[in-house]
Design goal:
The complex is a heterodimer.
Chain A: H1 3-9, H2 25-31, E1 45-47, E2 53-57, H3 66-78, E3 85-89, H4 105-133, E4 140-142, E5 147-150, E6 158-159, H5 160-163, H6 197-200, E7 218-222, H7 237-240, E8 245-248, E9 277-282, E10 296-297, H8 300-303, E11 323-326, E12 333-336, H9 342-348, E13 349-350
Parallel strand pairs in A: 2-3
Antiparallel strand pairs in A: 1-2, 4-5, 5-6, 7-9, 8-9, 10-13, 11-12
Helix pairs in contact in A: 3-4
Chain B: E1 2-8, E2 11-17, H1 23-30, E3 49-52, E4 55-58, H2 64-67, E5 71-73, H3 75-78, H4 86-93, H5 103-116, H6 122-128, H7 139-152
Parallel strand pairs in B: 1-5
Antiparallel strand pairs in B: 1-2, 3-4, 3-5
Classes of the chains: A alpha+beta, B alpha+beta.
Chain lengths: ~350, ~150
């Protein structure tokens, strides 16, 4: 399965506790060659010919509403309709690493980065329109729907997409591009309904627990009780009774026993959970049954040396932690519960 | 393993499963109804709640064979985003969710409560939802949502 297929298959998977992959088609087309240079404007947004605007954020929405809030900020800064924004969040392959989604920084820091990128785009649009009409950029008026007018002359207008038809790949984010003043905000400061809630109250929201990949295996991974623990044994009697049990990874050694033989969810629980050391793989023999791929995350000995686990957040929500991984042809794609940030994830994962 | 009959959201199914397999697994894995959540797996959090003949049960602890001819209702059976139920719409109107993982249990319990009591007091709402955990802390809005639903139901 190629990355593009993966993204397409994950296109219905929404944010919240999972890395967000609801990519629109135009964004998918751009993903393969997309810049991830923080200074590049195209790293942050893409303007579709149909007026749809795709914005890329390294933050994720864990249920705090940041997807809605960041969209408000972006819509205001670009002077477009709220519903014309498609916000792609948390995909480490297409979004800038904006740091952890933590510490109340998503709006104050992450949002500010998005605003500056959008202010640059707006400044560029004004300059292009001014050159086209032979007026000054200050005379260009934004109509609020993705179009600009030459002053008060409503008989002429131009869309953002038309003005930026040559692309934005050569434009860098201008840290001094003027931001919109709070008094001119249309969405920020108002109570815009959260975009994720209707799906959450009807069962349509896709959590990572609901997401399926072909031929998945389920894995239960045991977390050691203390740093420096070594796995020497565990009771897999119950899991061996599950139909489709296929393998066991990380065979017990005869070293000193510190690890917990059974996790908090009891013996034989084969959902992939917050994990440190690979325990039991199981595969159902039933053709349409969900199966999971086992992921082994850096063991406690390595973590004692300073690396951090990928799931470094004891986050608030109720659901059990779960992760997914796929590695066709040596390239790994992962779906992580929690607050993804590139360096910890990439440092913490190791593969059986 | 045998074919076990199961009526869910008005539709009849036959599930090829062990008799003691949890109803939750049948709903999620066999019928692909993901609105019912796996939370603790021990009947303690309420995320897996469904209604069986109008009574709220923990589907993670309910053997699929126990259901028999009873009618199972899941979150999907109440409504969808295009046409939500009164309770679901009230939760939207009150913005009564953060991560949303507990929503299934909250809405199931609230729906069952309002079916047996049209105008419950706040105490009765709290008691009805006491078995449903929300770690985000959205309880105040959830209670308001149930009160709103009580007022708006026909």
């Amino acid at each position: 399965m190629q990355r593009r297929q993966l993204l397409l298959s994950a296109a219905t998977m929404a944010g919240g506790l999972v890395v967000h992959f609801s990519l629109p088609s135009q964004a998918l087309a751009q993903t393969n060659n997309k810049s991830l240079r923080k200074e590049a404007l195209q790293s942050w947004l893409a303007l579709g010919a149909d007026g749809r605007i795709t914005v890329y954020s390294g933050k994720v929405d864990l249920g705090t509403g940041v997807k809605t809030a960041l969209t408000q900020m972006v819509a205001d800064e670009l002077e477009v309709d709220f519903n014309s924004i498609q916000l792609v969040m948390g995909d480490t392959g297409s979004t800038i690493d904006q740091g952890q989604t933590a510490g109340s920084l998503s709006i104050s820091v992450g949002g500010q980065q998005l605003r500056q990128a959008c202010a640059t785009a707006r400044q560029t649009i004004a300059a292009k329109a001014a050159a086209h009409w032979g007026i000054s950029p200050e005379e260009v008026r934004f109509s609020g729907d993705g179009r600009v007018l030459p002053g008060n002359n409503a008989s002429q207008s131009a869309s953002y997409a038309t003005l930026l038809a040559d692309g934005i790949h050569n434009i860098d984010v201008n840290p001094k591009a003027p931001l919109k003043k709070p008094t001119s905000h249309r969405y920020v400061g108002t109570s815009v309904p959260r975009v994720d809630i209707p799906a959450k109250v009807t069962g349509e929201f896709t959590y990572i627990h609901d997401f399926e990949l072909p031929d998945m295996l389920h894995a239960r991974v045991l977390r050691p009780a203390a740093i420096g623990s070594q796995l020497i044994a565990f009771d897999d009697t119950a899991s061996r009774k599950v139909r489709g049990h296929v393998a066991r990874n990380g065979p017990p050694s005869k070293r000193k026993r510190h690890s917990r033989p059974s996790g908090p969810h009891g013996k034989g629980c084969l959902r992939s959970r917050r994990c440190t050391r690979s325990g039991v793989h199981s595969r159902s023999s039933r053709p349409n049954r969900v199966r999971a791929v086992a992921v082994s995350i850096a063991d406690s000995t390595k973590r004692a040396n300073g690396s951090r686990p990928a799931t470094n957040s004891r986050s608030i929500p109720t659901p059990p932690w779960a992760h997914l991984a796929l590695w066709p042809g040596g390239k790994v794609s992962t779906w992580i519960s929690g607050r993804p940030r590139k360096p910890p994830i990439r440092c913490s994962l190791k593969w059986p | 393993m045998s074919a076990i009959p199961l009526k869910v959201n008005g539709q009849n199914h036959r599930i090829d499963a062990d008799a003691d397999m949890p109803l939750l697994y049948a709903l999620r894995n066999d019928l692909k109804l993901h609105g019912t959540r796996f939370g603790c797996g021990k009947g303690q959090c309420g995320a897996c709640s469904v209604m069986v003949d109008g009574q709220v049960v923990r589907s993670c602890l309910t053997p699929v064979s126990w259901v028999g001819r009873r009618a199972v209702t899941t979150l999907e059976g109440l409504g969808n985003s295009a046409k939500p139920s009164v309770v679901q719409q009230a939760f939207i109107d009150e913005q009564a969710a953060q991560c949303g993982y507990c929503m299934n249990g909250m809405i199931m319990s609230a729906t069952a409560l309002l079916q047996r009591k049209r105008n419950p007091s706040e105490t009765e709402i709290r008691e009805a939802l006491a078995g449903n955990l929300c770690r985000c802390g959205t309880h105040t809005r959830i209670i308001k949502a149930v009160q709103r639903a009580a007022q708006q139901q026909v």
